[in-house]
Amino acid sequence: MLIAVLGGSGGVDEVRAQDRESIRFDVAPGVPVEATVRDEGGVEVRIGSAGAIQQVAGVADADGKARLDHEDVDFDGHLDLVVRASVGQVNEAVAVYRYDAASGRLQTLRVPSGTQANCDGLWSLTVDVSSRTLVSTCRGGPMWYTDLYRYAGDALYLYRVERMMMLETPALEAVLDVDVAEDAGPLAVWSTLAADGRVLEHAVAGGLAVPAHGVPLKGVTARVVASRQPLYAAPGDTSTRRYLVAGDRVELLDERDGWLQVRYRNPSKGPVLGWVPVALP
């Protein structure tokens, strides 16, 4: 399990753990934990006043090294053990262990499998306490990807995810003049999901501009370029009676097989949804 966590402080030892190989703190009232990185890999943990020993796998860098830290990753008011190590030049892998009072042992924090997540596990994670959201960011090749997680009970679920759009820029510019900041990165479709995996909403925004947590997604806006732009009911349709005209402003919501879903706010009829072909497959 590769998990990355940044920030946090507290417990018995208040010193930041950027380079240390041992740490001591309380995982629950009256339950001290002392963890030490083993020379042969993994982490040895002594739990409770009796010092029961548990071995956890942790993570390691190319030299077999790891660093120890602690943070409340699951928002239960207690600190969790965090083992982290650099992977490559920009990514950081971290294993997070939570104390289970019933067994008196540490349990690995796991992410759900079989989801639309871009990163394999959690990477370079930031913990947003105000929205109770975990933000996981990883780099693959030249691209950065972000996955957001929340808790449903005691388990994590994928709450928000991005999918990069692979439209050709000249083809897009021939149809829509998109309002997006240069530092927002390439366009991506952001989706919000329910705990059961249902997609609740889509919106197109910059791939590097993580949407605000806990509020509805808002897509970037664009100006229609063509003098008469057909607006179709679904991707692949070949006929329609609906049209947009040059200068109409739309909000970008989704992309599918070279088609963009847009929302036009008609002054008299309200929001109008439709699909615009950009680059047919």
Written description of the protein model:
With 281 residues, this protein is mainly beta. The protein has a domain of 56 residues: SH3 type barrels (Roll), CATH 2.30.30. The protein is 2% helix and 48% strand. It has a 6-stranded antiparallel β-sheet with strand order 9-10-11-12-14-15, with no helix packed on it. The longest helix is centred in the middle third of the chain and has 5 residues. The protein is elongated and about 75 Å long. The two termini are 37 Å apart.
Order of strands side by side in the largest beta sheet? 9-10-11-12-14-15
Main sheet properties: 6 strands, antiparallel
Level-2 CATH architecture of the domain at 222-277? Roll
Rg, rounded, reads: 23 Å
Quick one: overall form? elongated
Based on the model shown, name its key terms.
281 residues, mainly beta, SH3 type barrels, 6-stranded antiparallel β-sheet, 5-stranded antiparallel β-sheet, 1 helix, 21 strands, elongated, disordered N terminus
Could you give a short description of this structure?
With 281 residues, the chain is mainly beta.
List the helices and strands and how they pair.
Elements: E1 22-28, E2 31-37, E3 43-47, E4 52-56, E5 67-71, E6 80-87, E7 91-100, E8 105-108, E9 126-128, E10 133-140, E11 143-152, E12 155-164, H1 169-173, E13 176-178, E14 187-193, E15 199-206, E16 221-224, E17 228-230, E18 243-245, E19 249-256, E20 259-266, E21 270-277
Antiparallel strand pairs: 1-2, 2-3, 3-4, 5-6, 6-7, 7-8, 9-10, 10-11, 11-12, 12-14, 13-16, 14-15, 16-19, 17-18, 19-20, 20-21
